[in-house]
Amino acid sequence: MKGFGPHMGHTGGFGKSDSPVIKALMARRSVRSYLDVPVEWDKIMTCIESGMMAPNAGNLQIWRFVVVRNLDKKKEIADACLQQYWMEQAPVHIVIFAKLEREEHYYGIRGTRLYSIQDCAMAAMNIMTAANALELGTCFVSAFDEEAISRIFRLPDGVRPQGVITMGYTDEKPTAPIRYRVESLVGVENYGMAMNEGQSGRIADKAAAVSTYRYAERFPKYLQDAMSDISKVTAKKRRKVLGKLLGKFKKKGEEKAEE
Q1: pLDDT tens profile 73-82
Q2: What is the pTM of this model?
């Protein structure tokens, strides 16, 4: 099948660029392991100010941000995020809220149910990109008990939690996630017409696409397991050869002793 396969980074093709902004975007990873090192306040504020520069509906700027560094409160947040206790080790949590009154006033239900989410999501992406440029790791957590978060922060009516960003100096370097090739996901003039299919054909059906993606996703693990198996086999052979050599030396030693 054309066009499906792992996209492992920005070293070639459409994603190649020397721009520091592009590099920061391409290098961002979801980090879940952090060093026990405080994050400078000016860096936190720089990231949030970057978030506030995100596009938003009507420039209403309905987002609100809460910086959490207190250990007990971070534990409460981790528990509210469906017991994701790895979050506790992050030195900083930035919780993003949407103040819905103005969105509803100007845009009605579409504002509260769509624009508010879009606005906060774009702000979150800006924050994480800025953090990456400042050599900080982040992870966006969207799985949480909304009522529990509301209780923790004593939210008034009309304010809704949108997500939690963990932030800190990273203790890991996650590898690039597998992605579809860009030419398989970009249509030209029409939906469903992939760039690499030309004007006469259509991309493979969804089931085949998912199957191919899963195959590509499994390949690195298959390779890792194969290398491990090879290592085990060669280690066994080395032990066998070493055993034979030791046996020969032992036999020679016994023969000399008899002389």
Answers
A1: 999 999 999 9
A2: 0.70
